[in-house]
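Predict both folds.
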Amino acid sequence: MDVKQSLHRIYEIFSALLNYPEPDLLERAQEGLVLLAPVNPEAAFRLEEFCAFAEKTSPGKMEEVYTHTFDLQMVCSPYAGYHLFGESHKRGVFMAKLNEHYRSHGFSAGNELADHISVILRFLAAQEDLHLREALLGESLIPVLKKMAQSLTENNNPYGKVIESLLLVLEPSSAISLRSASSAHPSLREERKGIRNAI
């Protein structure tokens, strides 16, 4: 597996980890750990902590933790558009734009909304358009993940380790600011402007 294939596979793995838990959750996390260890030890270290939690946690409990983390706390909503625009019409425009890109690249969001972070990651895993990929990462996904990381880290949530690990893959410089995401993310005004222009 070359570097590009490895990166795409890592995106797929994180997409699975940030979706509702499947029976192979631990295996996916361990595969990600193997891929990350030689190229990004810091990201691997955080994912290893999640693996340790998943290994000792029953499937039912993992589902409960996921639901409590992402479905019952709006600050950790898995929908990027919600973080960027709230429940305004702008979120609808954002999702419509995403769906346009998905269709033009032969990609389907399946039964999930277009702005679910797991769907965006799955799309990135198959994406060869560098401009679009950089726009999605810089203008939406990375700012949203930083915001989520702060809340999850403060609550010592195991999914915080997944988010932190992913941030270190997408933006290695995040290592400096993982513990102070709010100061690095005081406003989404510029990100919103960029999304309108680049996506």
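Second protein follows, with its predicted structure tokens after the sequence.
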Amino acid sequence: MDFKDFPLADVGTSIQLVGGIWAGNGVTYLFQFPEYGHEYDTQVIEMSKDDWKALLRQSDLLETEVLSKCEDGKLYKAVARKCQRNIDQQVSWNVFKRDGYACRYCGRDDVPLTVDHLVLWEKGGPSTEANLVSSCKKCNKTRGNTEYADWLNHNYYARVRENLSLAQRQANQDVAYTLKDIELVINIRTKR
């Protein structure tokens, strides 16, 4: 695959880092995180220095348009940088504790957890406990930028929710009714 055919705009949203590559003594080693090991095809992409610059910028410094609300309630577009997505560790731990240190989508409690924005970060969803749920990396990556209501009808979620109790499934459904009350945030890029 040529770099020009690579979906660069998806890096950091639906395309995530899943391992690393090391080389030495005539051997190249590909290390994949355990939860991503064998379910993806591997493609080698030849890249120039400019391609590398574009990839690194996209993976760290991408400016993302988000929808924000004015005081009068009207939506407008603002520009944010993905590196502003850092979530306060105390907020993350409060979410993990609230959700029983398990993924809200599949119920797994034996894998590293992330937090997932119910109202998408790209749409102005705040990094607050009310807008976050515990999610394993696989569920979070699979959901990607799918709207929450659509996610609840997604084939993957339909399969993994079987591990949840009826009460847990209902709680996930009930959350969908609270999303309209979550205030969107204004993420504006400041010049340095």
